[in-house]
Sequence to fold (286 residues):
Amino acid sequence: MRERLDCAVFGTLCTDSWFNSWLGPQAGGRVHIHRLCDSVDTADPSSLSLLQSCRIRLHRYDACLIPVTETNLAWARTMLSGLGNSLRTPVVIMARGLRAAALNDLCSLGANDFVQQSDCFEELRVRVERLLEARRPVMPMGQSVSAVREYPLSYMVASTANGAGQGMASGHSDAGEDHFGGAELDAFARASASYCSVTKESFRKAKSRVIERFEKVYIAAALSRHSGNIAMAARAVQKHRRAFWALMRKYDIDARPFRNGPKPFPAHGGKITSLANKDRRDCSSP
Fold:
């Protein structure tokens, strides 16, 4: 399970009195509750679209918590029905005094899960973890185990069209609504295949070369993001520390250069870029 989950509360004036006590660290610091915005007035028609307008801001959180009682149940139903599939962040109903029919109705309208005991943050932690696990994209068959486990964390490899082995680590981003999606994967696959299609290199060897490039830049990006802290980097990418060490040794990656702060990946020069360019020369040469 993750070391920390960050959840945003989207509250209303009628639930203000009981969700204010949640704010801050809970469950021994493993769950942090933040206020998404000021409590909304359910009598105001504009409050029905306020959560949708916050969808980009919600990308930085692991879940959106909505406290619901009998008082604001009708408002919650109307608001959820207007959201559709616009939210990428899981929505968890923090219910108090709701019957099964009401809970089922909220889930059918777009809520991903609910917690009846709203002060049980260990239960909330497990439910959010399961939602995040279920939302991980399924990789095509034939990928290595390490690639399957690491892909959802969005350490992105930039296009190879400029010849750079440039990496980018992205957690929750506000820059846009799309992370590492199908278009980027298709572009990267086409660029990689074009370099090797004119050679007599086997499919297996060409594929292993692409995976090698990905693993090398991914590990370096993880170390950069966590300032060279190997334990934190391994935990963040959900790999065992020994397996992370093994990849570092495999590609001769030293954590010390990253310990003075995150290092940008050079567009020209530098160890990773040089290795990437070397592979391009190897693939393109007869």
Remarks:
- The beta strands are 5-9, 24-26, 31-35, 63-68, 91-95, 113-115, 155-157, 167-169.
- The first strand starts at residue 5 and ends at 9.
- The two ends are 48 Å apart (CA to CA).
- The chain has a mean pLDDT of 74.
